[in-house]
């Protein structure tokens, strides 16, 4: 057995020499959890000074591969080489000692510690008496922030008080600061509206000879920053390709096993003349300034905006998570009078909210996917105040089918599902509430192309049945594809509104930065 292992190692090193310098090379990685095979004979090679994309649907094995490379998970089989030497980390700290660091999609920051403490953890600056020096930690944290263009962030601020986008940047900076050889970024722009800062950081890392593994579902940004990609499907590496020689259609086909035909799903002229289901007039407060719009039955209204333009306050106010600001809100012609999501769901024809952070605001860890889906309407399926496991499964089946979620996952603990299946469960729950107005905040953030198509189809079916949808997306192609109309927020105000074929990326980008052809005219 030892001879075979040594022979395999010699063969792998020979492959490395034949291919040129590769900072990190993995071959035949496999990992199973009981009867579930998460990864099977996966191969990948990363070169110094290059950005390599890892692509695949949720559940394809990307997260498992990232955890193995990061030292979080030990593979059942396979081997890895770092600079030609055996690499088998058994913890994140062991990986960091080899100068391999990861910025995880589900942020790994300690929320009740300061920014500086998170950045230097566990290598705290200590006094001559061996005690942690708060001043020294803050100074070192400030230096790291300044080095990466984040001087605006107070190193003494508690991480939990930062907005999601800033927490994402701290996660990324911490990884870059520890990645002398290999940097792994898992969905780094999932919470970043703009990519310029991140791409500048990656260019600097490339210049230092760092090998970068980049995981993203956004092919436009993958093509902007990456030169090569490895595609996973069902736990196996399908192919490693040069992005210059591969079309998006080729990549989608490798990811899902068949061609995906993207069609604009927007309809025109079918909602005119109907009484508005949701009317918003002159909302001011929570960063909003005289925001007005309306949505009619059967209509999908998109919200486009750069980060921090009031979109989050708008959705949270309408969902009942923030007090309604000054102005007027009507649902089915009735002045809104609810406090909290539960009352919003029961008011008039009902308002249901899908939040942006599924991990902290959406899923309830420790419960099954079925229980997570049926929670909002448990009283409807209870007998004498009690529910049965069979009843929950039965009630969750229809919402699961609506979002094309495999029903076998209903029995799984939801925290053990892929991000895509978690999002399907939350979308199914939102639809199953019976509300006729849906507030969807970035409903496909961080999910694969297959899951996106399932969610798009569910949104359109809901609208076709007379439902009304208000959704914000950080991905403009999503708004172009789905929205019947689009409102652009800028500085907390409605800057412009587009309808039908007016909705294209160029116009939306211009309006999002304060320029508009229609306003100029």
TrEMBL record:
The keyword ATP-binding applies. Keywords: ATP-binding, Nucleotide-binding, Repeat, Sugar transport, Transport. It comes from the Bacteria. The keyword Transit peptide does not apply. Residues 24-259, 265-516 form the ABC transporter domain. Gene3D superfamilies: P-loop containing nucleotide triphosphate hydrolases. GO terms for molecular function: ATP binding. InterPro entries: AAA+_ATPase, ABC_carbohydrate_import_ATPase, ABC_transporter-like_ATP-bd, ABC_transporter-like_CS, P-loop_NTPase. Belongs to the ABC transporter superfamily. PANTHER family: CARBOHYDRATE TRANSPORT ATP-BINDING PROTEIN MG119-RELATED, GALACTOFURANOSE TRANSPORTER ATP-BINDING PROTEIN YTFR. This is Sugar ABC transporter ATP-binding protein. It comes from Aquamicrobium segne. The lineage of its organism: Bacteria, Pseudomonadati, Pseudomonadota, Alphaproteobacteria, Hyphomicrobiales.
